[in-house]
């Protein structure tokens, strides 16, 4: 950095002609020199007489005369030198001195960042129409505010005849002053000079106070011990102006300087530069507004296209989200964009599309699921508070969730995060990342205003898309329901009456049922009675309404289709296997009564309305079930069938439970049925195997995984029974189903 003492070294004054070590020789040589310059001149004699008197008085205080003492004398008596040069030095001599001065002037190097102003024909032209058109074109098309400010500073420097100029841009949330270098690479165009504040450089001081400063001589000002802050600068007179746009936002500092060789800046220079910078700042602000209006026109066209798609070619949520993300990036000139939807039930934010950036002018989005709590990150803060958050340096904000960057491998600098509100509730959050070309300044207030308008239409589009999804979902449910009603019926009153009059079988004892090898195929007509026997033995005779339990088991039997394997007999056998496990583990408290209820009911209902196809088969035949569910298709359907039966009149066997216990049992039933999907088994098996191998297995911590494996084991138990049972099972699966 340049200090005042260094800058003084560049201020070289012309030496006083003649010098000596004695008073007399100095006087004589001075008189001879002056006589030689203007011989025989009366003006010369008068001046020499005056100078002789003045020098005589001053030289009496010096024992010896040296060049340093002469320089000291002249610096304290500038009038003497002025009078001497004006009256006695010829123009030819002055030109000779100036030529020598230029030869010995300090040379600038590439490491010095002061810029010499040059005429820019785009703005300095005698044809006002040309100037106006060029300026309007620049303001309406360019997005590089820093380069535009540099051009304005350069033009202003030319207008006020500044020897040098520099443009400083505020960065890091307006905490640092950065010197702008237009010819550098994009990542090196900004050189951090130091923090905003006093006691350092004049530009840092102006950035802090937002006040213009005009100095005739910066070297003698104690407020700025580092001067201009530019190494090797020969600046003496300095004019420093803050660049402020409406709403009192400072974006930079324009610094103009003149060396000692030039006349110091005056009041007219101050007025000219201030006016040019102020009008230019206003023009930039207006240009930003105009670009916003142009964007608004594009936005309106985009919204028309979105609504056309919604109403004419019903779109998916994924397509809608990708459209919103693409246009949002263009609207605010962002590098990346993320859109999170709110999961109210889980109090989480989630997205399924990740912005990979643009490639050959086309935005690339890949499917990558990201989900996190609304208590985390800036997006979570916006989802909770519905506030707009505009951050210039994301990593300096403690609310920023760095997990997303770690997951995606992307580095976030600027963030503009805004809520999408529908019916006074936040339904989504859009996050714009890294302002292209303006990472140091970040997103502007104009960007916020433009997106606020866009967000209203986004909310409407999302609402209509969700409404369509809901309607489509209900249509699929209705189609399935109609299909079911055409086939399924409730048990007849005659069947119900017979079972209610004789609920338990006398053909089989409880001790027989408790044997694992028991196989109920030979007791086909007695299976409902055997189920009632197992139920009352597990949970007691007084827990359930016998009437409702009879209707329930008969309707469950009726809702199993007569397919080769996944039929009523298979459902009973799975329930029997779970019964054998529970009757041995419940007494020691391995499972709670609510857990046991969920497992046992889930087992008897786990294949309700099975069509004889697995999940992939249902997709291949374009079943409505495949359109209704995304994972565990048939298992989801079996569970919904179970809930449907439990909700029918006279079938609500769990009516004795409290509301909370009822929810707990329903969840256990669902978990038990979903666990019969073999795709889920492998994950649970891997977890438990690892715990067992490492000796860290804890039943209390792994209860859910254990119950899931119980259901898988029960579902496949037929292949582990006696050989006749295994043989019959193999025939049903591999021969009859073919």
UniProtKB/TrEMBL annotation:
Zn(2+) 1 binds at residues 570, 606-607, 715. SMART domains: GAF, HDc. Residues 492-738 form the PDEase domain. Zn(2+) 2 binds at residue 607. InterPro entries: GAF (IPR003018), GAF-like_dom_sf (IPR029016), HD/PDEase_dom (IPR003607), PDEase (IPR023088), PDEase_catalytic_dom (IPR002073), PDEase_catalytic_dom_sf (IPR036971). Residues 1-37 are annotated as: Disordered. It comes from the Eukaryota. PROSITE patterns: PDEASE_I_2 (PS51845). GO terms for biological process: signal transduction. GO terms for molecular function: 3',5'-cyclic-nucleotide phosphodiesterase activity; metal ion binding. The keyword Metal-binding applies. The active site is at 566 (proton donor). Keywords: cGMP, Hydrolase, Metal-binding. Coiled coil: none annotated. It holds the Pfam family GAF. SUPFAM superfamilies: GAF domain-like, HD-domain/PDEase-like. This is PDEase domain-containing protein.
């Amino acid at each position: 950095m340049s200090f005042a003492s260094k800058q003084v070294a560049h201020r070289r004054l012309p030496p006083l002609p003649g010098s000596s070590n004695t008073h007399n020789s100095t006087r004589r040589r001075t008189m001879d020199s002056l006589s030689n310059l203007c011989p025989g001149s009366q003006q010369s004699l008068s001046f020499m007489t005056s100078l002789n008197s003045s020098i005589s008085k001053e030289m009496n205080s010096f024992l010896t005369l040296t060049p340093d003492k002469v320089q000291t004398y002249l610096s304290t008596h500038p009038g003497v030198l002025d009078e001497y040069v004006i009256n006695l030095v010829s123009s030819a001599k002055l030109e000779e001195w100036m030529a020598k001065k230029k030869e010995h002037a300090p040379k600038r190097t590439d490491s010095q960042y002061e810029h010499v102003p040059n005429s820019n024909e785009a703005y300095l032209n005698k044809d006002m129409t040309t100037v106006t058109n060029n300026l309007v074109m620049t303001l309406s098309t360019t997005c590089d505010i820093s380069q535009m400010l540099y051009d304005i500073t350069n033009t202003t420097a030319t207008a006020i005849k500044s020897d040098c100029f520099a443009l400083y841009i505020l960065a890091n949330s307006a905490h640092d002053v950065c010197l702008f270098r237009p010819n550098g690479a994009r990542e090196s165009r900004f050189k951090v000079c130091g923090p905003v504040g006093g006691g350092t450089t004049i530009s840092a001081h102006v950035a802090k106070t937002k006040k213009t400063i005009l100095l005739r001589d910066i070297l003698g000002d104690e407020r700025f011990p580092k001067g201009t802050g530019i190494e090797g600068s020969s600046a003496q007179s300095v004019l420093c102006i803050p660049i402020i746009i409406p709403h009192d936002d400072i974006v930079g500092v324009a610094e103009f300087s003149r060396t000692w060789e030039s006349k110091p800046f005056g009041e007219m220079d101050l007025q000219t530069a201030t006016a040019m910078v102020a009008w230019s700042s206003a023009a930039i602000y207006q240009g930003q507004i105009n670009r916003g209006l142009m964007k608004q026109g594009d936005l309106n066209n985009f919204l028309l296209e979105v609504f056309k798609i919604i109403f004419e070619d019903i779109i998916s949520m994924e397509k809608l989200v990708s459209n919103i993300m693409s246009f949002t990036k263009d609207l605010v000139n962002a590098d990346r964009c993320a859109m999170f939807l709110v999961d109210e039930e889980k109090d989480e934010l989630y997205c399924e599309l990740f912005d990979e950036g643009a490639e050959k002018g086309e935005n690339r989005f890949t499917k990558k699921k990201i989900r996190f709590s609304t208590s985390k990150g800036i997006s979570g803060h916006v989802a909770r508070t519905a506030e707009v958050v505009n951050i210039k340096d994301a990593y300096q904000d403690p609310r920023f969730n760095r997990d997303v960057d770690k997951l995606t491998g992307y580095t976030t600098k600027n963030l503009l995060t805004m809520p999408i509100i529908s019916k006074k509730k936040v339904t989504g959050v859009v996050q714009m990342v890294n302002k292209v070309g303006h990472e140091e300044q970040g997103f502007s207030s104009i960007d916020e205003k433009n997106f606020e308008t866009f967000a209203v239409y986004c909310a409407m589009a999302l609402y209509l898309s969700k409404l369509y999804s809901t309607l489509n979902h209900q249509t699929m449910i209705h189609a399935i329901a109609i299909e079911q009603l055409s086939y399924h019926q409730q048990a007849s009153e005659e069947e119900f009456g017979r079972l209610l009059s004789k609920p338990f079988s006398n053909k089989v004892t409880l001790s027989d049922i408790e044997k694992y090898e028991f196989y109920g195929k030979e007791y086909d007509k007695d299976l409902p009675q055997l189920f009632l026997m197992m139920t009352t033995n597990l949970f007691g005779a007084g827990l359930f309404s016998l009437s409702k339990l009879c209707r329930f088991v008969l309707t469950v039997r009726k809702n199993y289709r007569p397919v080769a394997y996944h039929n009523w007999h298979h459902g009973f056998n799975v329930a029997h296997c779970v019964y054998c496990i529970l009757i041995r583990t419940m007494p020691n408290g391995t499972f709670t009564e609510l857990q046991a209820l969920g497992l046992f009911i889930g087992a008897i209902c786990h294949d309700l309305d099975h069509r004889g196809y697995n999940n992939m088969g249902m997709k291949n035949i374009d079943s409505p079930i495949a359109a209704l569910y995304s994972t565990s298709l048939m298992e989801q359907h079996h569970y919904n069938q179970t809930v449907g039966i439990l909700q029918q009149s006279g079938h609500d066997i769990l009516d004795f439970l409290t509301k909370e216990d009822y929810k707990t049992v329903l969840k256990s039933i669902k978990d038990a049925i979903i666990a019969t999907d073999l795709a889920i088994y492998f994950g649970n098996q891997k977890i438990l195997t690892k715990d067992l191998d490492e000796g860290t297995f804890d039943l209390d911590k792994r209860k859910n995984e254990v119950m899931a494996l119980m259901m898988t084991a029960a579902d496949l138990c037929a292949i582990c029974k006696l050989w006749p049972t295994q043989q019959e099972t193999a025939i049903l699966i591999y021969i009859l189903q073919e």
